[in-house]
C-alpha cells in the first residue's frame, strides 16, 4: 500500500507560527513524506517530495517540519492500523499555520 494522507496529522501546523517571510495569502504548497514509528514518532526527518516554485518554499518547509517534530508523539494514530499510517504524504500551505486566518 502506498503513502497516505492523514488529516489528523496534517492539522499539526496550527501549533506553529507562520514564518515571517511567508504571508497567509501566498499561493505556495509543499508536500512532505513522513515515516512514522509504531509509537507515533517521526522515524526520520520528513522528505520534501513536491513543492511550488517559490523562494518562500524553504521557510514553509522548515516550519512544517518544526510543527511535525513539536507535536510528537501522535498518540491518536491507532497502533493496530500502523500499516496504514507508517508512511504519510502530507501537504502544507500557509493557510495551515497559526496566524494565517
How would you concisely characterize the structure shown here?
The protein has 101 residues and is an alpha+beta fold. Helices cover 22% and strands 17% of the residues.
List keywords for this structure.
alpha+beta, 101 residues, three-stranded antiparallel sheet, single chain, 22% helix
Question: How does this structure look, described?
Answer:
The protein is α+β, with helices and mostly antiparallel strands. It has one domain (7-13, 29-96). Helices cover 22% and strands 17% of the residues. The chain contains three helices and three strands; from the N terminus they run H-E-E-H-H-E. The chain has helices at 7-10, 57-70, 82-85, and strands spanning 30-35, 47-51, 87-92. The chain has a three-stranded antiparallel β-sheet with strand order 2-1-3. The radius of gyration is 13 Å and the shape is elongated. It starts with 6 loop residues before the first helix and ends in a 9-residue tail after the last strand. The model has no long low-confidence stretch (mean pLDDT 85).
The number of helical elements comes to 3
Report on the biggest sheet: 3 strands, antiparallel
Distance between the termini: 35 Å
User: Share of helix among residues?
Assistant: 10-25%
Order of strands, widest sheet: 2-1-3
Runs in which pLDDT lies below 50 for 5 or more consecutive residues are none
Please tally the β strands and state the result: 3
Integer average pLDDT: 85
- Computed structural class: alpha+beta
Q: β content, as a range?
A: 15-25%
Could you spell the SSE succession in H and E letters?
HEEHHE
Computed over alpha carbons, the radius of gyration is: 13 Å
How many separate domains?
1
Globular, elongated, flat, extended or rod-shaped: what is the shape?
A: elongated
